[in-house]
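Hi C.,

You asked whether I'd gotten around to modeling the 171-residue construct. I have! Everything is below, sequence then structure, no commentary in between.
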Amino acid sequence: MSSSIRKVKTTDLELKDRLVSINRVTKVTKGGRHFSFAAIVVVGNENGIVGYGLGKANEVTTAIAKGVEDAKKNLIKVPVFKGTVPHEQVSKFGGAQVFLKPASGGTGVKAGGAMRAVLESVGIKDVLAKSKGSSNPHNLVKATMVALLEMRDAYTISNQRGIPMDKVFNG
């Protein structure tokens, strides 16, 4: 199954950034240890648009700023249906596997750390999510983004199949 990538322009969007994780990286040289930082950041407008980025620098604040700039370059549009995901979705990236399931109103975001940041940045209010396999934040964020990118709403399905909206559900 191939999914079309839905890129978004960054002009006049109110994006909020969330820090997923900071990793201190050490390089051992002849002169001793050299520390630098890698930060994973998720940005979104909490209304269906989300992106993630990785920033690396010698200081934490610079790494976060670089991550935000990288995330703004990788924004995608995600279908959100009544505050939840349109359908169940399983996705995998590296060793991380994620499972997203729609939930009724008032359930909240039932998801772990890295997945929670992505889902809240999209604007999903009610979802049941499970991560299996690796708990590496890099791969969890990427697997969640792949799962959200593969989501299709009823309008998209009707356009792809060339049938009216009422036939999508009663077909």
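If it helps when you're writing up: Residues 79 and 151 are 7 Å apart (CA to CA).

Thanks,
B.
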